[in-house]
């Protein structure tokens, strides 16, 4: 077996960016303002500019970002929050933490993004049952490609629903010629190390164009603080971004554009080398992905598992995002109304994510493509 390939290569990334990261960290070690130091505000300004939003608020994680956005809308018991069934648990757990009800929506079988027709159906379901108040839609840019934001915006407007963007996987992607960051009332980001803009620990941010909301998020991340330090205006959380994380992210942001280009190059190489029978991810029209994840589709679970073992033997790691839709997970089953969401229910058996990160060399990508072709010759004809 040749050298194993990494699914996420933080050591190589370290080596490439070590100088600037170290300098940024050293500055923090000198001023010692570990909570809300100057790097946090500097990062906020850079994030807002990058995402094309007026305000950015650095927070403790992508999950806490979603939580605070929903807290600001006073989401609670009796509220319905619509979100895709095929996403990471964080999108839905914050809804239940606030006592509201997640209403799961199916996804498009080709792009894996939220399905507009299913969304319309699910809103009708909730209205008909007449038990919950339809309030919020959380759009998720799954795997780094944009959700259908224009359609979501018109639908939300027509129905009087608030639209929130979970951009945890997609910061850096663009939609109809502009960077994601202001398609919704609030956009949440995650800097978990494996996300396209990853820190060296947990971190996140909220982007918004609304000055009043920005002030509310700032208050919520510091225990609901009012105008002065020990005035408690409302119930908040400890949801701040650490200064050290902001320092690392500032160094990473300098290299981010180049990394996004490299991810795009790798996706293009995969697309071109994909054997017949393994389906490359469908591109969302008129957009550019941040390629957090590159997911291919196999005809069925047996083939998918077989390919995964074959690649593993060759030192090529893969991952399955996500094995089950959320409404099949034990924690969510009892909160689901029983609607069937056939696409989300079928995808878990067929998806396989290939390595895609800026440290992959052309040789490694070619090795992966060669392995895919070798396997498909014997298994897919
Ligand atoms: C990673 C992720 C989150 C949560 O972000 P954390 O920073 O890990 O809390 C939320 N939504 C989606 C779609 C994610 O992939």
Automatic annotation (TrEMBL):
<dbReference type="Pfam" id="PF01041">
    <property type="entry name" value="DegT_DnrJ_EryC1"/>
</dbReference>
<dbReference type="InterPro" id="IPR015422">
    <property type="entry name" value="PyrdxlP-dep_Trfase_small"/>
</dbReference>
<dbReference type="InterPro" id="IPR015424">
    <property type="entry name" value="PyrdxlP-dep_Trfase"/>
</dbReference>
<dbReference type="InterPro" id="IPR000653">
    <property type="entry name" value="DegT/StrS_aminotransferase"/>
</dbReference>
<feature type="modified residue" description="N6-(pyridoxal phosphate)lysine">
    <location>
        <position position="195"/>
    </location>
</feature>
<comment type="similarity">
    <text>Belongs to the DegT/DnrJ/EryC1 family.</text>
</comment>
<keyword id="KW-0808">Transferase</keyword>
<protein>
    <submittedName>
        <fullName>DegT/DnrJ/EryC1/StrS family aminotransferase</fullName>
    </submittedName>
</protein>
<dbReference type="GO" id="GO:0000271">
    <property type="term" value="P:polysaccharide biosynthetic process"/>
</dbReference>
<dbReference type="InterPro" id="IPR015421">
    <property type="entry name" value="PyrdxlP-dep_Trfase_major"/>
</dbReference>
<dbReference type="GO" id="GO:0030170">
    <property type="term" value="F:pyridoxal phosphate binding"/>
</dbReference>
<keyword id="KW-0663">Pyridoxal phosphate</keyword>
<keyword id="KW-0032">Aminotransferase</keyword>
<dbReference type="GO" id="GO:0008483">
    <property type="term" value="F:transaminase activity"/>
</dbReference>
<feature type="active site" description="Proton acceptor">
    <location>
        <position position="195"/>
    </location>
</feature>
